[in-house]
Specification:
Blueprint (H helix, E strand, L loop, with lengths): L27 E14 L4 E16 L4 E5 L6 H8 L7 E6 L2 E2 L8 H7 E4 L13 H11 L4 H14 L4 H4 L9 H12 L6 E5 L7 H18 L2 E5 L3 H7 L2 E6 L2 E7 H6 L4 H8 L9 E2 L29 H5 L5 E3 L4 E3 L4 H5 L9 E2 L1
Parallel strand pairs: 3-8, 3-9, 6-7, 7-8
Antiparallel strand pairs: 1-2, 1-4, 4-5, 9-10, 10-13, 11-14, 12-13
Helix pairs in contact: 3-4, 3-6, 4-6, 6-7
């Protein structure tokens, strides 16, 4: 049974009155974001190396859009989400939310940021307090921000209705009494409790059965339209990202290698890594089989990444310049599509040769 019957309308809606920077101002701008995790060793536990989890990431998110983020495990997607939420401190970089710098004396305080920016985590169980009924979990955020007990309880009941859970039936239940899909609906309701303008969804549907996943995606689509939300959607599922996103950002080993409109990325990817990711999707045609994997080998060690282009050790099109200089994001096909590859123009004529070859 197909639960998703149509592609969601993700066109930006008119900006709400609380938009400080106007409808054309990106809701989020990230410049040079960097996070290295130290590795300590020896008797004195001194730093001997560092993991370059996020290394110089730049992008922006427009109001009303959904930006999908994809990449292999360990590429820095979840670390990036936690940096945006200030759950871990950044080493370098600048975050601007609707024209205001974040965590600045004259800018946007973290308290104000967390009213406008909320996150739905991958693990729907561990992200809820097991000792709190779910209605109290949803009401907790508003209570912290000064909302009265009765008003917060009424708000929590309304949000439970919005996500398809009756307060009379589910409000007094504890997280262990709910299914995975129901818990994720609770997490979505909790994220909406402060009336945010943007949600970060970190693998929010990856742990769900496909039928439940479809229901949650439909819920997210409806809430986006009704509440004028902006989404940053992180997922391993390339088909889900294609369905929900307006633009797609591809990460590899802590860096952005390609970003552009979803149709352009999926129809004509310009970076060899993006092509390999898309070629790794299984075909629904049993007569189409891969003769060889689209991408061989493991990602390099993030403690000591390759010089120049970090993908060059696995790339079929690498040249000497790829080891000498790190590629920068540059416009391809008109400007909205950016790619960080020295060989972007040269290898584009090769199509998918060398990356995958379906066996008919």
């Amino acid at each position: 049974m197909r639960l998703i019957t149509e592609r969601p309308d993700t066109r930006p809606t008119p900006a709400a009155s609380r938009d400080r920077g106007g409808p054309q101002q990106p809701i989020l701008i990230v410049n040079g974001l960097r996070k290295y995790f130290p590795i300590k060793g020896g008797l004195l536990q001194r730093k001997v190396a560092e993991v370059k989890a996020v290394d110089g990431v730049d992008f922006s998110v427009m109001k009303g859009e959904t930006l999908g983020i994809v990449g292999e495990s360990g590429c820095g997607k979840s670390t990036l989400a936690r940096l945006l939420m200030h759950l871990i401190p950044k080493d370098e970089g600048e975050l601007i939310f609707d024209g205001d710098p974040v965590d600045d004396i004259r800018g946007l305080s973290l308290r104000d940021l967390r009213r406008d920016l909320q996150m739905v985590f991958q693990d729907s169980y561990s992200s809820l307090n097991p000792r709190l009924p779910i209605q109290d979990s949803i009401a907790y955020g508003p209570r912290v921000h000064g909302v009265g007990k009765a008003e917060a309880a009424a708000l929590a009941a309304d949000l439970l209705n919005k996500v398809g859970l009756r307060p009379s039936m589910f409000g007094a239940r504890y997280p262990h009494e709910l299914s995975g899909g129901q818990r994720q609906r609770v997490n979505i309701a909790r994220a909406l409790a402060l009336d945010p303008r943007m949600l970060i969804l970190d693998e929010a549907v990856s742990a769900l059965d496909k039928s439940v996943e479809a229901q949650v995606l439909n819920l997210l689509s409806r809430l986006k339209r009704e509440l004028n939300l902006t989404y940053l959607f992180i997922s391993h599922d390339l088909s889900v990202v294609q369905y929900v996103s307006d633009r797609v950002l591809v990460m590899y080993l802590g860096q952005v290698v390609e970003i552009g409109p979803v149709d352009a990325i999926y129809a004509a990817p310009r970076h060899p890594y993006t092509r390999a990711l898309l070629d790794s999707r299984l075909s629904m045609n049993p007569l189409e089989r891969m003769s060889e994997p689209p991408l061989s080998g493991d990602p390099p060690n993030p403690v000591n990444p390759p010089s120049g282009c970090r993908f060059r050790t696995r790339c079929a099109f690498a040249e000497s310049v790829c080891a000498e200089r790190q590629p920068r994001l540059a416009a391809a096909d008109g400007g909205a599509h950016l790619v960080a590859c020295h060989m972007a123009d040269a290898e584009s004529g090769h199509g998918r040769a060398g990356l995958s070859a379906p066996l008919h």
